[in-house]
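Lecture 7 notes: from sequence to structure.
We start with the chain below.
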Amino acid sequence: MQNILALIYSSEFDEKNYDTLCKYRPDYMLPFGCRYRVIDFTLSNITNHNISSVILYGGEPLRSTLDHVGDGRNWELNRRSGGLMINPPVYLRSRLANEIETYYNTMKHFMRNKREYVYITNPMYISKVNISDAYEKMQDENLDALIFTQKKNDEYGYYLNRRIINTDENENPVSVGINLGLEEEINLFTGSILIKKDIFMDLLRYSIEKNNATNVLDALFKYPKKKSIGLYKSKESLSVIMDTLTYFEASFNLLDRDFFDEIFYEQGMVYTKSKDEPSTEYLKGSKVRNSLVANGAIIEGEIENSIIFRGVTVKKGAVIKNSIIFQNSEIGEGAILNHVITDKDTKVFEDVKLFGNRTHPYLTDKGEHIN
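Predicted structure tokens for the same chain:
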């Protein structure tokens, strides 16, 4: 897979949808699964398929990205040839550039890179998609571009307002649409495109000149030159994070053992920035049921159906249910939390009660003290 350049870009969803969760970090830097960040899953999947040239288009604020991802050494991307490049946000006349404009403004990187294919992916679609299999399909069918999708039965409207690919009677893609719930079965776009680099660069030039598209998926169908586009229909488990609610739901998907095993262990491991911390300490009287608890935590209270990050302290008599507790938070004696997300370094004092619900979890700010 040394013939592929990977581009990671995550601005499809508005970060305002995350309330305070993205106040101090881009969406792809959200903590996920006890000790990881959302970006770890995309970086790991890319490198597990032996793609060694990656450009990460960073979001704001950029500091957390530089601190966590760095030179890419945890994904073996700290190389002299290829490797990882983090591109800062692109601004045009004091506004943030859209996807097409961002790629066009970094065209020189594509020209210098000798790889012939570009894999474009959004890290907010968490899945262990088989990039190698998709590349083989593209070669076998002599395609110019391949759009990654999943066939979904959406009778309950879970994928409403998501982008879908409309097809003809032969299952050839013909247009991009928005799922309004008119059809029970849809071709859900899963955030990735594999495309020949020369076509990709020409598509960018055309889109800028005509000013007719803001993202690559739309531009692909507005590009007038003859091209062959196919669909890669993946079957791997998928979590799409687009706001606070879907982040909450995606996190609790990890409590399903089958999903956990697939997302962490199948088609390669998930890697992250390493931190040396002691094992979790469970003190007398602690109770933990159906939860994920990271190393470095000290547990003396009761935890159920929750996700506890590194360095968290849960004191005697505290009860945490259906909640996500970020790194280095402290939950005081007798406190009760249900459907809560505490940001890093939150301190909840003794006997405080915090309640949200499944669709509107209670959020705390980073470093907030609640008494």
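Points to note: The chain has nine helices and 31 strands. The radius of gyration is 22 Å.
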